[in-house]
């Protein structure tokens, strides 16, 4: 029983730390000062139901959802708002821009 619990913990930890924090090709993250000459395309968001000890993996998953939304509206730059990790979910929000 103990071995099963330890194995489950190791598997969950491995899944939560998978390197999915990468930006899609052609996408960049900027600050609001960097997008003054860019076209606002819309807001983007992502949510993961994981939080707490899984917050890093959850944040990465939520960011990937938001990047996908940015690509879908033909944006190439995202300006993130402050991140939120609360009990029950991890979410990200940002504004997507098309910059030359």
Protein architecture, described:
The chain is α+β, with helices and mostly antiparallel strands and 100 residues long. The chain contains two helices and five strands, in the order H-E-E-H-E-E-E. It has helices at 2-16, 55-72; strands at 28-29, 39-48, 77-80, 84-86, 89-98. Strands 1, 2, 3, 4 and 5 form a five-stranded mixed β-sheet that branches. It is elongated, with a radius of gyration of 16 Å.
The proportion of residues forming helix, as a percent range, comes to 25-40%
Give the terminus-to-terminus CA distance. Answer: 58 Å
Task: Provide the number of structural domains.
Answer: 1
Largest sheet: 5 strands, mixed
Output mean pLDDT: 81
| SSE sequence, one letter per element | HEEHEEE
The name of the CATH superfamily reads Hypothetical protein apc22750. Chain B
Q: What fold name stands as the CATH topology?
A: Translation Initiation Factor IF3
Query: In CATH's first tier, which class applies?
Result: Alpha Beta
Structural class: alpha+beta
CATH architectural category: 2-Layer Sandwich
Q: Number of DSSP strands?
A: 5
Separate helix tally? 2
List low-confidence stretches. 6-20
Shape: elongated
């Amino acid at each position: 029983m103990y071995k099963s619990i330890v194995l489950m913990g190791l598997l969950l930890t491995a899944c939560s730390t998978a390197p999915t924090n990468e930006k899609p090709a052609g996408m960049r993250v900027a600050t609001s000062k960097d997008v003054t000459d860019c076209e606002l395309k819309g807001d983007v968001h992502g949510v993961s139901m994981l939080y707490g000890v899984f917050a890093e993996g959850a944040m990465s998953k939520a960011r990937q959802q938001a990047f996908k939304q940015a690509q879908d509206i033909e944006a190439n730059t995202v300006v993130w708002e402050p991140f939120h990790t609360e009990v029950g979910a991890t979410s990200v929000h940002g504004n997507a821009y098309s910059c030359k």
